[in-house]
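# nightly structure sweep
# worker-07 picked up a monomer target from the shared queue
# config: single-sequence mode, recycle default, output format = structure tokens
# input follows
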Amino acid sequence: MELLKLATEWAKAEVFSTRFFILFAIIFIIASIGFWQLGKTDLAKAYIIPTLVAGILLLIIGSGLNYTNIQRVKQFEKDYNTDVPAFYQSEIERTESTLKEYTVVFKVIPILIIVAALLILFFNSITWRAISITTIAMLIVILLIDGTAYARMEKYHKELQMIDIENETKK
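# output follows
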């Protein structure tokens, strides 16, 4: 039962965390509306589409992850009650796989931030400046949220490894 409790607590924390994607999406969309309604300069008007696109992308990411993790919470109890050792093994494998994926994310996103920063330097267009700055802001949001998710996943993985599966199956 300790395994089920641990997995469920982790998934619920993920549900809470993914809602921050939705929160930041709303902030980007509100900023886009603000630039549209109040923007008087060409630069302010150039931010309308990039902030809207960033908001929609974050909304899609947040909604997808939120739905997936809510379903995962429901599925954990079924999988645990069906076959405890198989559930344990699948969680170990899933956490290992996800931790490897985060390693890629933490290498790719900084490169994308550097590329967006270089676009600001090399293209003197206000449109490219707005796109690049919005992209950098969106990628920083993703890094912040994924950074906490990575730490949670790493902790969850270590806690999974410490569970005595033989005692777990006897309960």
